[in-house]
């Protein structure tokens, strides 16, 4: 048989496409209430899900977490371990507090800042382990605020308490979401570099302008004993950091408090071998119990610095606390942590002490404190107080150079942060750029608090750049239920002249021109497609529907075919179009499941595009439009220009609607004696074909 005529079209009992209105009616769609009262708007902003953590019946347990875990505390099994842990934690935390005090030139304030956080956090902290009061990168931030903004510790703590309380009361936790892990890592590496610069004079010449406020006589003493003691201390710190700490951890389950013993040994050597130096001290450390003082009204610069200190302290605290909580299988709540930190900061401001902060990264303090409960943190205050009281004379002989080496070697996270920054250069250039901007801002700005604000603005700007431009991808049909990127997959050729464009991200006014350009570009492409094709589920046709006369198909079952598409009018011998011949309708299907927002300007742009393309017989079908986007369309009158019938719940329904619009059609398949040459036509009948010589055999 020379030709076979087939009438292809939807089956008589095939269901019609389900548009969005029919879909909403069938599944009882709840329409958006257009107006809200002022009270409802205030409640939605100020309350919303902000207080969902403190709803009954667990409100009292959440506001005072100690009531939840103290009943589960096993005294016989755990108390003995916590008593030993208290002594161990005191030996770890005291050198850390001394290092914090050396950085900010106030050892007394740093040492006494160990006491309030341990007590308050045991009652109000949502975590079951704590390293508050240990040395952290906030030390260099507080030092810069005191040095460049003339801030006082009481003012910094008071501002931190106010900021943390406001973040607890209002839904302002979104600020922390702009500080990504890469940004925090980059800024922390920059703070580590600033800390090295802070002690660089002592490392080079055993003296520096900052040493005079604590132990100026030691910094000027460059005798042999001090040099040898400092070098030996540096070697011991490095050996413990890179070798012995891991060895002891694997052998006995914990690492030795080497920082305490090394500092104690070096201090005793200086105290006994240089008693004249200790006696001639002109600047002694006052370790008397601090008294309650009046608050000084903070300046704007102090408030800005405190904002940076508070945000960084909470972000780094949550990072390490959540990692420990995941390992120990309990939850940590940032809102409760903000409430706890605000109480600690407020009480610290009364005594001129430091705002709370945790040790950074996988430091020894963080690792060892996770092995004990908060009871051990509270009990650790007893040996700490005894050591402070009886060891007060030794504080005036503190070796600043040895303490500087201890501070630098105690930061464990900076090296892993550098490796993570190097890795994200290959995976995410955006995150790498943010990390490098954070690192540079911490190093370049004299006041690192201002550098943190600059880093925060860079993060917000980078996020706005990433999210304000939508992704527009052309999809290919892989199967009846699967669609994916056309430039990555090979799928079926559609039997309807259309293109599927997936839009994801926010559709804002800034994106109007890019969306318009992409849709008109796809309109040009869809014009070049054949009027009506043949649907196939075999592997012989590619997802890119042909626009030329022939396309080479893939081999299937060892059969290489050359498929020739013959349109209504041959391109080589074009006939004048008949007035009675209806124009072929083509389609652009917009898959909008990933749209996260839309504004009025974009709706106006889409309305204009719809009108322009309709005049060229190209219809726009919108599939999977989220409900909140349709709410905006209804409120802004979008349906006045784009009818509701153009909306469909998914891409499949939109494709079915497009197919039903252009089908049924008459398709002629001619066989010329060669099994690998097939001529397909979308003409009305065989008589309407423009007779041409049969294609040559392949």
TrEMBL record:
Keywords: Membrane, Transmembrane, Transmembrane helix. One of its GO terms (biological process) is transmembrane transport. It comes from the Eukaryota. It is a multi-pass membrane protein. The keyword Nucleotide-binding does not apply. GO terms for cellular component: membrane. The keyword Transmembrane helix applies. The chain crosses the membrane at residues 83-103, 109-125, 155-176, 183-201, 221-240, 252-273, 293-315, 336-354, 397-414, 434-463. Residues 500-658 form the STAS domain. It is found in: Membrane. Pfam families: STAS, Sulfate_transp. PROSITE patterns: STAS. This is STAS domain-containing protein. It comes from Caenorhabditis remanei (Caenorhabditis vulgaris).
């Amino acid at each position: 048989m020379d030709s076979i005529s087939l009438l292809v079209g939807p089956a008589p009992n095939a269901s019609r496409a389900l548009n969005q209105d029919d879909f909403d009616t069938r599944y009882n769609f709840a329409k958006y209430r257009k107006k809200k009262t002022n009270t409802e708007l205030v409640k939605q902003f100020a309350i919303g899900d902000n207080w969902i953590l403190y709803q009954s019946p667990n409100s009292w347990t959440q506001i005072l977490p100690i009531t939840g875990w103290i009943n589960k505390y096993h005294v016989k099994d755990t108390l003995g371990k916590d008593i030993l842990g208290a002594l161990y934690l005191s030996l770890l935390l005291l050198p850390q507090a001394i290092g914090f005090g050396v950085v900010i030139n106030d050892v007394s304030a740093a040492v006494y800042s160990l006491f309030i956080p341990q007590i308050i956090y045991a009652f109000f902290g949502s975590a079951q382990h704590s390293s508050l009061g240990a040395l952290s990168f906030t030390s260099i931030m507080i030092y810069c605020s005191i040095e460049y903004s003339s801030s006082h510790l009481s003012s910094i703590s008071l501002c931190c308490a106010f900021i943390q309380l406001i973040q607890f009361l209002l839904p302002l936790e979104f600020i922390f979401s702009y500080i990504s892990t890469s940004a925090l890592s980059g800024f922390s590496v920059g703070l580590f570099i600033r800390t090295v610069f802070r002690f660089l004079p002592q490392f080079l010449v055993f003296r520096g302008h900052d040493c005079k406020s604590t132990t100026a006589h030691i910094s000027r003493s460059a005798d042999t004993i001090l040099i040898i003691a400092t070098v030996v201390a540096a070697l011991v710190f490095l050996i413990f950091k890179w070798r012995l700490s891991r060895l002891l951890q694997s052998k006995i389950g914990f690492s030795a408090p080497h920082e305490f013993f090394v500092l104690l040994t070096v201090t005793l050597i200086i105290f006994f071998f240089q008693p004249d130096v200790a006696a001639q001290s002109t600047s002694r450390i006052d370790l008397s119990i601090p008294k309650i003082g009046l608050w000084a009204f903070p300046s704007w610069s102090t408030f800005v610095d405190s904002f940076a200190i508070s945000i960084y302290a909470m972000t780094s605290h949550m990072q390490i606390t959540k990692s420990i909580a995941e390992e120990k299988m309990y939850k940590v709540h940032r809102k409760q942590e903000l409430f706890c930190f605000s109480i600690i900061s407020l009480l610290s401001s009364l005594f001129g002490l430091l705002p709370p902060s945790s040790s950074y990264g996988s430091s020894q303090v963080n690792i060892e404190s996770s092995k004990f409960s908060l009871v051990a943190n509270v009990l650790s205050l007893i040996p700490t107080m005894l050591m402070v009281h009886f060891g007060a004379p030794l504080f005036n002989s503190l070796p600043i150079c040895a303490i500087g080496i201890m501070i630098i070697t105690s930061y464990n996270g900076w090296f892993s942060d550098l490796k993570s920054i190097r890795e994200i250069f290959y995976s995410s250039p955006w995150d790498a750029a943010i990390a490098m901007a954070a690192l540079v801002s911490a190093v370049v700005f004299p006041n690192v608090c201002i550098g943190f604000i600059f880093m925060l603005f860079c993060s917000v700007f980078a996020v706005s750049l990433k999210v304000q431009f939508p992704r527009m991808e052309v999809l290919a049909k892989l199967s009846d239920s699967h669609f994916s990127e056309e430039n990555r997959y090979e799928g079926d050729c559609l039997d309807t002249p259309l293109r599927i464009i997936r839009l994801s991200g926010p559709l804002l006014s800034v994106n109007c021109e890019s969306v318009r350009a992409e849709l008109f570009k796809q309109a040009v492409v869809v014009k070049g497609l054949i009027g009506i094709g043949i649907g196939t589920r075999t592997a012989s046709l590619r997802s890119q529907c042909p626009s030329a006369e022939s396309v080479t198909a893939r081999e299937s079952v060892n059969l290489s075919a050359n498929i020739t598409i013959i349109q209504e009018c041959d391109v080589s011998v074009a006939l004048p179009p008949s007035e009675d011949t209806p124009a072929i309708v083509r389609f652009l299907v917009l898959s909008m499941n990933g749209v996260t927002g839309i504004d009025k300007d974009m709706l106006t742009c889409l309305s204009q595009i719809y009108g322009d393309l309709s005049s060229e017989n190209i219809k726009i079908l919108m599939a999977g439009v989220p409900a909140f986007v349709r709410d905006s369309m209804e409120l802004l009158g979008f349906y006045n220009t784009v009818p509701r019938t153009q909306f469909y719940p998914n891409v499949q329904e939109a494709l079915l609607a497009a197919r039903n619009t252009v089908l049924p059609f008459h398709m002629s398949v001619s066989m010329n004696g060669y099994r690998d040459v097939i001529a397909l036509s979308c003409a009305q009948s065989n008589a309407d074909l423009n007779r041409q010589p049969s294609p040559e055999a392949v």
